[in-house]
Amino acid sequence: MSRGKVMDEYNRSGKGEIFILKYLYMKESPASPSELSEALNSSTARISAALGTLEKKGQIHREIDTTNRRFVLVTITEDGRERIRANIDRMRSHLIQVFTEMGEEDAREFVRLSKRFFEVAQRSRPDICE
Known about the structure:
68% of the residues lie in helices and 8% in strands. By secondary structure, it is mainly alpha-helical. A two-stranded antiparallel sheet has the order 1-2. β1 and β2 form a beta hairpin. It is extended, with a radius of gyration of 18 Å.
């Protein structure tokens, strides 16, 4: 994948669609737009725009909460689930490719340094590493 394609993928995910779908996929139950906003640390306007795009793509469904008609619930559709599964598979394949190219010794060193990094980060700022 060229640097341009990597950046395009990053920019698409930066718009929030992947993060919203991943949240709904992992939660396995409907969520309100305000819950998504809080969970993803994003503005309600950004969430609303992303939900509109996802709904047009058929990857989420919005409906009125039957227990309180003032609220909307967002549910991931099968198309949305498929997008997340494909995204996870692409990421997994890419990581395998990178670690294979790095070789066993460099991959082990990377894992060791990553563990060390997160240990130090957690000790120095436990409030943000929960």
